[in-house]
């Protein structure tokens, strides 16, 4: 592993400035020190220790079995390899069900090395977002397809396709920004809805399966490398055309996000 560190670390202000200047930024999931090093050195601005680790590392069919112990372990690993990216970590299923649980678990992720925590939900996480923000813990609110609610949603489906549901997502996104969220992540929503939300919010919006107009893109590392067992529509394998193995694939992903050649039309929902 190289010991090179970029001179400047990515902070929330960096991301806010990128949004203000109309520049895109690249995010990827990371679960260990080796990949954290490769990804951050390739210019990925945000590393997400996602609870997707339950599916891609542990082999579960959802993210529900992931525990705080798992998240703390992988956050510590990623922190050790990270060379200056902003480190975001997921609060897993049922770890923010009460106020005391939320504070204890968010603090544990921050102590493990996270710079910001991510939680899933709409209006019902507004008070939780406020609680964390008031205590100095930055929050990314994850909306649209929220995998921790897969059993309630009824599958990993596109959200916000009808006007009523789209309007509700727009209103809830504003509520979460007003409650103190620093970043919004939108998963699997139609391009037009993601654009409306991105254009009307002040905070950066990270998209996955949400089209090209969000401030940033995120993908699961295993999808970028083409080693996931399933390939959703919004996924592109960047290893296929890489002339420099995994580091080359990650650099191509970063470049494609920034020059807006990814996502292409075949990767988004209308
Ligand atoms: O857990 C995760 O990897 C995520 C991404 C799909 C955004 O939340």
Fold blueprint:
Layout: H1 12-20, E1 25-29, H2 33-41, E2 46-49, H3 53-56, H4 68-81, E3 86-90, H5 99-112, E4 116-120, H6 126-134, E5 139-144, H7 150-153, H8 163-178, E6 183-187, H9 191-200, E7 205-208, E8 216-219, H10 221-224, H11 245-258
The chain binds 3-methyl-2-oxobutanoic acid.
The site of 3-methyl-2-oxobutanoic acid (KIV) has 12 residues, from β6.
Quick take:
By secondary structure, the chain is of the alpha/beta class. 40% of the residues lie in helices and 14% in strands.
Overview of the molecule:
- The chain has 270 residues and is of the alpha/beta class.
- 40% of the residues lie in helices and 14% in strands.
- An eight-stranded parallel β-barrel has the order 1-2-3-4-5-6-7-8, surrounded by eight helices.
- β6 (183-187), α9 and β7 form a beta-alpha-beta unit.
- 50% of the residues are buried.
- The protein binds 3-methyl-2-oxobutanoic acid (KIV).
- Residues 29, 48, 50-52, 90, 142, 185, 187, 208, 218, 220 line the site of 3-methyl-2-oxobutanoic acid.
Please state how the strands of the largest beta sheet are arranged side by side.
1-2-3-4-5-6-7-8
SSE pattern? HEHEHHEHEHEHHEHEEHH
Uncertain parts: 1-6
**Bound ligands, named by name, code or SMILES:** 3-methyl-2-oxobutanoic acid
Averaging pLDDT over every residue, what do you get?
Answer: 96
Largest sheet: 8 strands, parallel, barrel
Helicity, as a percent range: 25-40%
| General shape | globular
Distance between the termini: 42 Å
Q: How much of the sequence is in beta strands?
A: 5-15%
Question: How many strands appear in the DSSP assignment?
Answer: 8
Count of helical regions? 11
SSE class: alpha/beta
Q: Nearest-angstrom radius of gyration?
A: 17 Å
């Amino acid at each position: 592993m190289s010991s090179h560190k970029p001179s400047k670390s990515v902070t929330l202000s960096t991301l806010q400035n990128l949004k203000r200047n109309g520049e895109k930024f690249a995010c990827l999931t990371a679960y260990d020190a080796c990949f954290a090093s490769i990804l951050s050195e390739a210019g990925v601005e945000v590393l997400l220790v996602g609870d997707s680790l339950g599916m891609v590392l542990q082999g579960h069919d959802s993210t529900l079995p992931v525990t705080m112990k798992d998240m703390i372990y992988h956050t510590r690993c990623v922190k050790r390899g990270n060379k200056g990216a902003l480190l975001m970590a997921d609060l897993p299923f049922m770890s923010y069900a009460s106020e005391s649980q939320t504070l204890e678990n968010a603090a544990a992720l921050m102590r493990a090395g996270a710079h910001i925590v991510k939680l899933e939900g709409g209006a019902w996480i507004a008070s939780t977002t406020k609680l964390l923000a008031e205590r100095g813990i930055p929050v990314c609110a994850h909306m649209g397809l929220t995998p921790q609610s897969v059993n309630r949603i009824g599958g990993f489906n596109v959200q916000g396709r009808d006007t009523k549901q789209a309007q509700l997502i727009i209103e809830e996104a504003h509520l979460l920004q007003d409650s103190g969220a620093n970043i919004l992540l939108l998963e699997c929503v139609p391009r037009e809805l993601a654009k409306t939300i991105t254009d009307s919010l002040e905070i950066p919006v990270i998209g996955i399966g949400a089209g090209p107009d969000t401030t940033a893109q995120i993908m699961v590392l295993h999808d970028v490398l083409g080693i996931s067992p399933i390939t959703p529509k919004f996924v592109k394998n960047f290893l296929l055309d890489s002339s420099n193995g995994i580091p080359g694939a990650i650099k191509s992903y970063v470049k494609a996000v920034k020059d807006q050649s990814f996502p292409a039309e075949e990767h988004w929902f209308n």
